[in-house]
Amino acid sequence: MFSGTKYPTRNVFFHKICEIKISLRKWETSSCVEISSMSSNMVEKFDRYWNDVHGVLAMASLLDPRFKLKLPQYFFPLIYGEDKGLVEVKKVHNLCEKIFLEYQVKVGEKRSKEIKAICNSEFNHVDEMDSLDSFFSWNSESTDAIEKSELDCYLEEKNLPGSREFDVLSWWRLNGIKYPIMSEIARDILDIPISTVASESSFSTSGRIVSAQRNRLLPSTLEAIMCTQNWLWAGKKGNTIDGVGDIDVDDDNDNEVNEAADCSCATKA
């Protein structure tokens, strides 16, 4: 999902990020010392990014009418515990309200300009509406007193049933008239890319070894090159490698393996 070529909208990533965090915390308590130590280092780095993005990711899930605040209400107690989980859900709700108020001002200014342009047009019939000025003023005051915000109305509506074929952008396109401010927020937040680069590009080194000029390496040769690279780095950092066995390579490919290892050594040098 993270490295797909079509890069889905941001609303589908929140639960995956939460599942990763829960898994890392679970591995921290592993009886295997290596796994526990590795997980602790991963959690430390993960949390630095988590603290920056989990609020916006939760906001994106809120903009999915299938989830709204239900996903944070489900995952945050599992991550933080019951008490702190409720506090984090409240923070997400407050963030949504803050963003909504900012967009409300922006959309209100945009509407005022549109209305002003209509009023200045040649089709304006002011004289016919003079007698209704007091009615519109009264109706506006009475409506403001009891009217709920778009955000509240949206959250109070029943969640849509889960569907893998659901298109959140089409839903907001159809419901933009009903929720004009929320649709503006959805347009800006849902198209934020989750990553600037595909994840396999960050973690895979095979693309640097099997290039257009060197594309006929056997799997055993590729394994030898990557292991040699790893051992060289370990030696450079002063780490000892115990119990490293011999790599099983066909006798016919000995020369190719040696040449590949020499190339790797020369490259590292």
How would you describe this structure to a colleague?
This is Transposase. InterPro entries: hAT-like_transposase_RNase-H, HATC_C_dom, RNaseH-like_sf. One of its GO terms (molecular function) is DNA binding. It holds the Pfam family Dimer_Tnp_hAT. The chain is an all-alpha fold. The chain has 13 helices and no strands. Residues 243-254 have low confidence and may be disordered.
Keywords for this entry:
269 residues, mainly alpha, elongated
Quick description:
The protein has 269 residues and is mainly alpha-helical.
**What is the number of helices?**
13
Order of helices and strands: HHHHHHHHHHHHH
Total DSSP E strands: 0
Morphology: elongated
Radius of gyration: 29 Å
- Catalogue the unreliable spans: 243-254
| Main pleated sheet | none
Q: Structural class, from secondary structure content?
A: mainly alpha
Q: What is the strand content?
A: under 5%
Helix content, binned percent: 55-70%
Question: What's the end-to-end separation, in Å?
Answer: 37 Å
Mean pLDDT: 76
GO molecular function: DNA binding; protein dimerization activity
Pfam family, one: Dimer_Tnp_hAT
Protein name: Transposase
InterPro entries: hAT-like_transposase_RNase-H, HATC_C_dom, RNaseH-like_sf
List strands and helices in order, with pairings.
Blueprint: H1 14-28, H2 33-62, H3 70-80, H4 82-119, H5 126-129, H6 133-146, H7 150-156, H8 168-174, H9 180-189, H10 199-203, H11 206-209, H12 219-236, H13 254-268
Helix pairs in contact: 1-2, 1-3, 2-4, 3-4, 4-9, 12-13
